[in-house]
Design goal:
Elements: H1 3-15, H2 18-25, H3 29-43, E1 48-49, E2 56-57, H4 59-83, E3 91-97, H5 99-102, H6 106-116, E4 120-126, H7 129-137, E5 143-148, E6 155-163, E7 165-170, H8 184-188, E8 191-195, H9 200-212, E9 217-222, H10 225-234, E10 238-242, H11 244-247, E11 252-255, E12 264-271, H12 278-293
Parallel strand pairs: 3-4, 3-5, 8-9
Antiparallel strand pairs: 1-2, 5-12, 6-12, 7-10, 7-11
């Protein structure tokens, strides 16, 4: 049994079709079929049911594929460990974060880390918390930055700082001239531009507004933080965003709300007991200092 047998089996299981799997693997379909048959002969059992319109795993195949995926994941981690360079002159860091953080946190983090370790290649992905947890479990990324707590017991969370949410308006908005905080009733009368429901921030906002018993005038919903920022900066609307976003946008002002919106814990996420590259360990060691330097805490 060879490693390529496992890779070929997993490709067929993913695509449920020999032709598409062969194309993804850049091999001919006869070669792929032959390799799968060799694996079945070595194990003494049929792994794939080829009789239907799509290929599916047999009961034995489904059991074997689960172990094969875990084994391949560990082998790939081992390969990275072999090639890991401890002096950090080269290497790769695979980092993911939920969308809010790409608007204000990614810049200081990457600038601070790259200044210290310019030889490390960075692969940065923006994804939802659910996708981020799956990527960590599948060893598709090294570290994640998101809100805690998380659902998976496989994921370890290290708290970094508390993120504060506030009312955000443009410099010409009437709220921008207020000396003190506004109330939820003040907010109820204002047209709002909010992030769409697929953002964790919106979940917090909706829960707060419901608790205060107000029905907000939501005129615009957007699935882009940048779009909301542009709308609020140029128009007469208000929004609710992390305080730190206004530091990146001179045309915005933070306005306190009384009672205040709840804070959220930002955390560094990793898979428990997983191999951590030298680059990942270095990033984890530097992140709190970089955040403090950027005055985000």
């Amino acid at each position: 049994m060879l490693l390529r047998h496992i890779r070929y089996l997993l490709a067929v299981a993913e695509h449920r079709n020999f032709t598409r799997a062969a194309e993804a693997l850049h091999v001919s379909q006869p070669t792929l079929s032959q390799q799968i048959r060799q694996l079945e002969e070595a194990l003494g059992t049929q792994l794939l049911d080829r009789t239907g319109r799509t290929v599916r795993a047999t009961d034995a195949g489904a059991a074997y594929i689960g172990y094969a995926r875990r084994a391949l994941r560990e082998l790939e981690a081992g390969e990275r460990a072999v090639h890991d360079v401890r002096d950090l002159r080269r290497g790769t860091l695979r980092l993911a974060m939920t969308p809010t953080f790409t608007s204000y946190l990614v810049g200081p983090l990457i600038a601070g880390f790259s200044a210290r370790h310019p030889g490390i290649a960075l692969c940065i992905n923006e994804m939802s918390l659910d996708a981020l947890e799956l990527a960590l479990a599948d060893d598709a990324i090294d570290l994640g930055i998101a809100f805690s707590p998380v659902r998976s017991a496989e994921i370890e969370c290290r708290p970094l700082f508390a993120e504060k949410l506030s009312i955000v308006v443009g410099v010409n908005h009437p709220f921008a001239q207020r000396a003190g905080p506004i109330t939820p009733r003040d907010l109820e009368r204002e047209p709002l531009a909010l992030l769409s429901a697929d953002f964790a921030t919106r979940t917090y906002v909706d829960a707060y507004l419901y608790k205060q018993g107000i029905a907000p005038k939501i005129l615009i919903e957007a699935n882009s933080i940048n779009a909301v920022v542009v709308i609020v900066r140029r128009g007469g609307m208000a929004t609710i965003l992390p305080d730190a976003i206004t530091r990146e946008n001179a045309g915005l002002r933070n306005i306190a709300l009384d009672p205040a919106l709840p804070h959220r814990t930002v955390a560094l996420l990793r898979r428990r007991e997983s191999y951590q590259s030298a680059a990942a360990l270095a990033f984890a060691g530097l992140i709190e200092g970089i955040i403090a330097d950027a005055a985000l805490t």
